[in-house]
Design brief:
Radius of gyration of chain C: 25 Å
Helix content of chain C: 55-70%
Largest interface: A-C, 54 and 63 residues
CATH topology of chain A: Helix Hairpins
Oligomer: heterotrimer
Structural class of chain C: mainly alpha
Distance between the termini of chain A: 74 Å
Helix content of chain A: over 70%
Strand content of chain C: under 5%
CATH architecture of chain A: Orthogonal Bundle
Number of helices of chain A: 4
Chains: A mainly alpha (129), B mainly alpha (84), C mainly alpha (255)
Order of helices and strands of chain C: HHHHHHHHHH
Largest sheet of chain A: none
Order of helices and strands of chain A: HHHH
Number of helices of chain C: 10
Strand content of chain A: under 5%
Chain lengths: 129, 84, 255
């Protein structure tokens, strides 16, 4: 029972859950009306993508990617290449969140000045003045 | 065994994501996002990526504080619940 | 109802094609495609060639150093972008009647200064800074590196600005100076890449750096200088974003 559950999870189960999380993040960005929730759902999407990359680097019976003196074969260490790529991806996502929040502040100032965020209304109002 | 623990944590993450999308109050969503970041840190440790977990722990805190800063300040301009 | 239906349909559209076809490899398989080819070389030769037991640091700063240089540049550009987006004229305020003006001088100061908030946070800031420098220099032996250290320094500044709002914060950097400091990070990285030209090597080839030490030490020196550059880039960007956002927000109800 345990081995069949493990076999199903290894082949398809974990990927299924990762794709559900990714699509929840995407659908949240499309469906939510609130701008802050859209930014939060963008970060949820990013977590799903990073988890997918780290899944591809797993090895059965592998240890942390820090070199020990006992183990010398490459089969006993987890693949360090996806870890390196995802490290920079997390830090860059912080910068992306900061830029998104500054765009949000700008949008609110526009809405305060013109009363709306629709582009045709703003153009019409500017042309009248 | 590790795969079963990963599946349970992933199911927890999916339920938190559902609560973020379908919640009504915005402050609740931001606080739950902090819990989301915390559980992903555990997930990364179980998968054998402690470097990534360390980075996620620090960046998650900074990101949540950014959201709380913006949330408290835009309360004066628009309604905090619902429409923006 | 409409929201839930949209979410469900999008989930089904993304998930179902992958469940019916065997495209993706098994998790935990040591012979799958991402675990073969080049990762075995990195794992087996990380400690011989790069003199660093931490394989993740060896991959991102030694074998793939060119990618990390541009990642640091992207962080610097994010800081600059935040400053440029939030550069508009401030909101015009109403004329304040004189009976409210006497509250202006003390607006924004904390209402009370307690031992918990001010003293303990100062002690914690000192410990976090020591830990950040430890993580930076210890990154090639065990876990750590430049990105974590830079984010920890940014978190120290965030604590200082948000919790105990003194007149002079920890790093006296405005938003422009912080972005300039963040630009110093990729600059240090690029100059360290140019130094091997003097010794007769290629760009970012640490074994041909012109320092008169043993060859294994050259990799350690190169990695340390480059990680310092990454730390300065990340910390400067976080400080610039915090300062740029703080000028446009108001916490108390000002008149």
């Amino acid at each position: 029972m345990l081995t069949t559950v493990n076999a199903f999870l290894a082949a398809k189960g974990i990927y299924l859950l990762t794709f559900i999380l990714f699509s929840l993040g995407t659908a949240g960005m499309i469906v939510c009306n609130n701008y802050m929730k859209k930014l939060i759902c963008m970060n949820i999407m990013q977590v799903a993508v990073i988890f997918f990359f780290l899944c591809l680097g797993q090895k059965n019976g592998g240890t942390f990617p820090v070199a020990l003196s006992e183990a010398v074969r490459a089969e006993e260490y987890i693949n360090p290449l996806p870890h390196g790529l995802m490290l920079t991806a997390i830090v860059v996502s912080l910068g992306t969140t900061g830029v998104g929040l500054s765009l949000l502040l700008r949008l609110l100032r526009i809405r305060e000045k013109y009363g709306t965020v629709e582009e045709d209304e703003i153009i019409r109002r500017e042309q009248k003045i | 065994m590790m795969l079963i623990i990963e599946a349970i944590l992933l199911a927890g993450l999916i339920s938190i994501a559902t609560a973020i999308i379908f919640g009504r109050d915005l402050m609740v969503s931001v606080v739950i996002y902090c819990a989301f970041s915390f559980i992903t840190m555990f997930l990364y440790i179980i998968m054998g990526a402690p470097d990534v977990a360390f980075t996620e722990a620090v960046i998650g805190v900074i990101s949540t504080v950014f959201f709380i800063i913006i949330l408290r300040s835009v309360k004066r301009d628009a309604k905090r619940r619902g429409e923006k | 109802m409409r929201k839930a239906l949209t979410v469900l349909l999008l989930t089904a559209a993304i998930t179902l094609p992958f469940m019916f076809f065997d495209i993706l490899p098994d998790i935990g398989d040591p012979a799958s495609a991402p675990n073969s080819h080049v990762s075995d070389y990195y794992i087996e030769h990380a400690i011989d060639e790069c003199n660093s037991p931490n394989m993740v640091t060896a991959v991102i700063v030694d074998y793939r150093a060119f990618d990390t240089m541009f990642e640091t540049t992207v962080m610097f550009l994010a800081g600059v972008a935040v400053i440029l987006i939030l550069a508009y004229h401030p909101k015009r305020r109403l004329i304040v009647p004189s009976r409210f003006r006497r509250f202006d001088a003390r607006t924004g100061e904390p209402m009370y200064n307690t031992v918990n908030k001010d003293v303990m946070v100062s002690i914690i800031q000192a410990l976090i800074l020591i830990y950040a420098i430890y993580v930076l220099f210890h990154g090639e032996v065990s876990l750590g590196g430049g990105f974590q250290a830079g984010a920890l320094i940014g978190m120290t500044y965030l604590l200082d600005v948000m919790v105990c709002r003194r007149e002079v914060p920890l790093f006296r950097l405005g938003k422009f100076k912080a972005a300039g400091t963040a630009g110093l990070g990729p600059f240090i990285y690029a100059v360290t890449g140019l130094l091997p030209f003097i010794g007769g090597g290629l760009y970012l080839q640490y074994s041909k750096l012109p320092f008169p030490v043993h060859e294994a030490e050259l990799h350690s020196i190169g990695i340390t200088i480059v990680e310092i550059g990454v730390t300065i880039g990340v910390a400067g960007t976080i400080i610039a974003i915090i300062n740029a956002l703080r000028e446009r927000i108001a916490f108390d109800d000002e008149l």
